[in-house]
Write a structure and sequence with these properties.
single chain; two-stranded antiparallel sheet; globular; binds phosphoenolpyruvate; binds magnesium ion
Length: about 425
Amino acid sequence: TKKLVASALPIQSAFASPYRWRVLGLAVLAQTSASIVSQGVYTLVPFLQSAFQLSQAKAALSVTAVNAGQVMSMMLMGWLIDKYGERGVVVVAPDEQLLAEYRKLQTQVLKEARKLQQLKHAKTETADRVEIELFANIELPEDAIQAVKLGAVGVGLFRSEFLFMDRKQALPDEEQQYQEYRRVVDLMHGLPVNIRTIDVGADKALGGGGDVSQTGTSPLGLRAIRWSLTEPEIFLTQLRAILRASAHGQARIMIPMLAHAKEIDETFRLIEKAKQQLHQRGKAFNPNIQVGAMIEIPAAALVLPLFINRFDFLSIGTNDLIQYTLAIDRADHAVAHLYDPLHPAILNLLANIIEQAKRANVPVAVCGEMAGDPALTRLLLALGLTDFSMHFSQLLLVKREILQANVGLLKARVARVLRAYE
Ligand code: PEP
Ligand code: MG
């Protein structure tokens, strides 16, 4: 007999590293997969976009009360029912009535999706004519195809980890990396592509050839640029690959997790060294390649002039900025309910970063999940943000909010929000 095996699964907290996946609700269709597929429920919103997300989802699900193996096999079918979020139900072998409900929902979702598609070519500006730039976050080179189709004006965050994680073989060499980066640059036809240097450690484990023991599990440990600076040969290899891609378009280097002046010095020293090495080998690259910093550690936000003076652009990684400001391990299910992008401390930090960068004329974007959440679009506009970078699936939803927003009115109200303590 068909029955609801698990309902009211706290999906949102299940995806503890999560705000990232912003899972509102998940319809899990399994067991009788063939019959369900034939009933067309599977044509709902695709959920798992890449192997990287899959590995993240696996990690998150292992902490839920539901038998993880069971849920995983269902998730492999990869379909998310958005809009079903409030219910947050995982349904195994749904009955006829439920399927009928889902079909109705499916019709609504598809209708809305068609309406959204019409926004693709609209100019991205607010109702009071403030121009906004929408960039895409991508995890695989081919994601760039969707980014362009949906009207992104560049790739604001290319997470390069896919090249390094879950690998059985050795780490990719310069040539392999160069080919992948170049592919994105080519697909973006001259638009900027921020290639974030490797961000392993904490919840992102290195595969195969790398020394996994060195990338601990603590989010306060040796991750991102900290790790790269302890592995200069691996870092130099990546920098050379990015530099070579810059000969074909606007590849830019973006550095995660910086906090210290001496990390910045060391990073630039290695970038110069990578340039010299390529020069000696007669390889083409853009000597004026732009270098950006992710602002995702509160300490960096509090000494922003250091970053403004030395980088061509800034990108705020709110996922980590929230984690470190609120002392919430983003992979720890037990504290997921405290992960709050609307905490006044976060809003004030964001307002300050954006204001200082704008005043100094240094481009600043938000590339954490906040930027892709349409419920937060107007708030970010009110804080003065004009560059948003998000998973490409969110682009049109956020654009719809932007087209309807009046920044002048929003800004007039934001001071009161920033003064609030709760
Ligand atoms: C962030 O921290 O907000 C971010 C964009 O990077 P990641 O989620 O990959 O750490
Ligand atoms: Mg981050």
